[in-house]
Amino acid sequence: MSVKTVQAVIDGQTHNLTLNSSTGKYEATITAPGKSSYTLSGHYYPVTVKATDDAGNTTTKTDSDATLGSSLKLQVKEKVAPVIAITAPTAGSYIINSKPAITFKITDDDSGVNPTTIGVTIDSGSKITGDSITKKAVSGGYECTYTPDTALSDGSHTVKVDASDYDGNAAVQKSVTFKIDTVPPTLSITSPVDDLVTNQAACTVKGITNDVTSSPVTVTIKLNSGSAEAVTVGSDGSFSKALTLAAGSNTITIVARDSAGKTTTITRTVKLDTTPPTIKSITLTPNPVDAGKTFVISVEVTD
Q1: 186-272 shares the fold of 3-74
Q2: pTM for the full predicted model
């Protein structure tokens, strides 16, 4: 008798093998399954080989065979890397919290994201991995959060995220640069002085502002219950605005706001008094007075 057919069954597909006369072996060139074997039991595709002779006798070998089983475990690896998306902080953002939550999502639609490879690097520090990164399993991957243990200094910072899938494909590293700003802008008002009393309705507010981390700084000035109006701030941080005071007590509110949204507020109270005092009565006692002697002058004044 002689061998009639040799077949291999992989992933539900049957493939016929042909005799290679030069090697004496039955062979076939087969296209591997399109998906990674990592998600399968044992991380491989089981292969079944059936040999049938002319008399109809069949021998079958599977991956459970004690002798040949290890040769019937086909490992298939994907070549598509996971995808990383950083959701917070956003690029170029200003953050007033020195320990911002860094959130990102990693997905892979085949072998799956290997959670042990997920890493976060802040600036030039060491890569952070493991349980310090919170990982929530979602469809196709993980939603992750990392909050720094140590407060970040004010200024610019860059976060980088890395990950690989179970087949060893490394995702393209994603990074985002943002600024920490926990300090409000400086604000100094040079005029008017607080509690100024004047008979001039024209009043000019002058000052200077700055913020080392989050320039430029915007300034608004509000007189009494009016609307806060933006003023032009020079490159050196100086500003001025002319106001017209109302009779009586006036409240001027100056607010400096940096790019992170932190504010510094200064108020000035200025009283406008344009009414001259009234002299109601004058008494000279005694009158007449002896030469060389003293007398008392008494004046009644209201204002």
Answers
A1: yes
A2: 0.80
